[in-house]
């Protein structure tokens, strides 16, 4: 099993099932689409995709959340381009790229955003799926 994930020689020979290769192509196409949507329209992804109430945030916080979505899209576009290179030239690394794609699936998308009162005034809070918070 580990020899399939970490081959001793990286070449263009794919020794797995054809269905695994086709599944990789389908996953890669879907990830390309999602990455481009997040990169080009982060506002729509935040509002319609994750139901974040961006209208309740102040303009600076809203811009930061949209920028995080665009950054997420750029990150996934880079991973997709590397996966495309693996598909075209280094097919023996396809099982390893499946692991990479699974790792990057839902790393840090924002899932909630809200405003709260504190002693210094109004703050905006964004919570991510990995449990981290961003205070604005």
Q: Care to describe what's here?
A:
The protein has five helices and three strands. Helix 3 crosses helix 4. It has a three-stranded antiparallel beta sheet, with helices on one face. The termini are far apart. It is an alpha+beta fold. The mean pLDDT is 77. The chain has a domain at 17-107.
Let me know the number of strands.
Answer: 3
**How widely separated are the two ends?**
46 Å
Instruction: Write down the Rg.
Output: 19 Å
Biggest pleated sheet: 3 strands, antiparallel
Strand order of the largest sheet: 1-2-3
Helix/strand order, N-terminal first: HHHHHEEE
Which features would summarize this protein structure in a list?
136 residues, alpha+beta, 3-stranded antiparallel beta sheet, 3 strands, 55% helix, elongated
List the helices and strands and how they pair.
Elements: H1 2-5, H2 18-40, H3 42-49, H4 59-88, H5 94-103, E1 110-118, E2 121-128, E3 133-135
Antiparallel strand pairs: 1-2, 2-3
Helix pairs in contact: 2-3, 2-4, 3-4, 4-5
